[in-house]
Description:
- By secondary structure, this protein is mainly α.
- It has helices at about 5-40, 65-75, 85-90, 160-170, 175-180, 185-195, 200-210, 220-230, 240-245, 250-265, 325-340, 355, 365-375, and strands spanning about 110, 115, 155, 160, 280, 305.
- The chain is about 35% helix and about 5% strand.
- It has a two-stranded antiparallel sheet.
- Strand 3 and strand 4 (about 160) form a beta hairpin.
- The longest helix is centred in the N-terminal third of the chain and has 36 residues, at about 5-40.
- It is globular and about 60 Å long.
Amino acid sequence: xxxxxxxxxxxxxxxxxxxxxxxxxxxxxxxxxxxxxxxxxxxxxxxxxxxxxxxxxxxxxxxxxxxxxxxxxxxxxxxxxxxxxxxxxxxxxxxxxxxxxxxxxxxxxxxxxxxxxxxxxxxxxxxxxxxxxxxxxxxxxxxxxxxxxxxxxxxxxxxxxxxxxxxxxxxxxxxxxxxxxxxxxxxxxxxxxxxxxxxxxxxxxxxxxxxxxxxxxxxxxxxxxxxxxxxxxxxxxxxxxxxxxxxxxxxxxxxxxxxxxxxxxxxxxxxxxxxxxxxxxxxxxxxxxxxxxxxxxxxxxxxxxxxxxxxxxxxxxxxxxxxxxxxxxxxxxxxxxxxxxxxxxxxxxxxxxxxxxxxxxxxxxxxxxxxxxxxxxxxxxxxxxxxxxxxxxxxxxx
Length: 398
């Protein structure tokens, strides 16, 4: 055999060997994926919430910060037109969420289902369903993983990290709080300037941030609201009591519902103490009709973050578009997509997350699962609303 032929033979052997290795690795990855898909989660994949929240290193909580943050949360002075407060769309009686499909922020009036736009109006509805602020102190908390509140994922598309960042985003958003009077790059300077001109706020910021040369600042605005939001926790549901050792905290039916929750595959995404993997998933949820454009989610993939399942009794309607009024409708949606139905025409079958399409939710399981989900409610959270705010504006806005 010539030297050329020998060299060609060696290359062929090498290529064949690599192909075998690649094929083997690919088969192993497929096998692992199938095993993960077939695995049935157990109660160990869930968890009780801590009884206290963890603060980021650069924003330790103090009573002064929480008190300031509460006033800011309910004060419409933070909005461009001074008509919307954080609490307009995050109301204590609705678990710091709101009983609307998608919210009416700027240029709105009224509360709850009676809220409407004021004529004339050129402001759109808020893009997505108002998520609860309650327990967001625990966003990102996962079993057996280090928890960093400074990196906690926020919003349906996870575009912000930490409550400190999250607190400022609605102020900058046109339809939520900013309105048309200010550019996105101007509004925070405007708001900080307003706060600095109110003597009561100057005093409160000084007490909350005593070491700062200029305590009334954008950074401290976010820190104060975040400190208040971290005080809004509900960690003592009957499920939490059960996980902490009280076997009588759940009824036999509720325990059966928990088993159905695990067996049907719900816990593949709704896991850990917050019942969320804090990942993005494409489910093909129908769009809200409140907006003309389709909501394409994170990175235009129609993916949205897994929401927590805690305190759902108070936070309907559900999903990012608010299209489902009841938990039964949510579970029936999962039954539909597992059966091959596509409910959003913008989302193709190949885009759908297999963790959802391979679920085994049946109509007979729905009532039991809902019964279990109701054990995740804790109504003992702080619902205090200030009688007045330093700006003198109406508490919670118009």
